[in-house]
Amino acid sequence: MSSTSNSQEDILQRIKIKIEELKVSLPPAGRSPGNSCAAHTLTNILDVLNERNFDSFYYNNLAVPFSGFGSYVNDKGWKGPCGAVSGAIASIGIIIGGQEKTKPQDVPMVYAKVLQFADKFEKKFGSILCHELCELDLTKEYKTYNKENIWQERCCNFIYYAIELVSKITRKDLKTKWQ
Q1: Residue 102 is assigned to a structural domain of this protein
Q2: CA geometry: angle at 70 spanning 124 and 98, to 5°?
Q3: Number of domains, the chain
Q4: pLDDT tens profile 61-97
Q5: Looking at the domain assignment, is residue 130 inside a domain?
Q6: Is residue 153 part of a domain?
């Protein structure tokens, strides 16, 4: 975990610090294969939560397929969500659940927060779909994605915003369940 993990600072301040750290570390990662918007979003939020169990590679491995799903298009034209959106949605569930299984009575609140997240993300960027955000079909145009630095120029911004928005939407739960 990063230096923010050991900090006694307010959790919302730790999230701001994490985003600033990512602005330095994340863009160069685009030069290497194997990046996952979902994994970066989810694991960096988990890093700030300071839960020892989140150190496991399991959470990274869980989130990686979310980004691959963003490239999916079915025969009716349905397209998959951006990995940052998927990772953020998973984070909302973890944050609201706290350090236990989500209570059945909290499930509607989780759904409402997810819908709020998707609405705000879409209003900011015009879509929640990977194809539309990248303006490419990554199953066919991955070389163009790399050549045009889409990761550095766009995807990193989706991750920063997703982490920031999750912290705003789940502010109360972060303070009461994760401080």
Answers
A1: yes
A2: 75
A3: 1
A4: 778 788 778 888 888 988 889 999 999 999 999 999 9
A5: yes
A6: yes
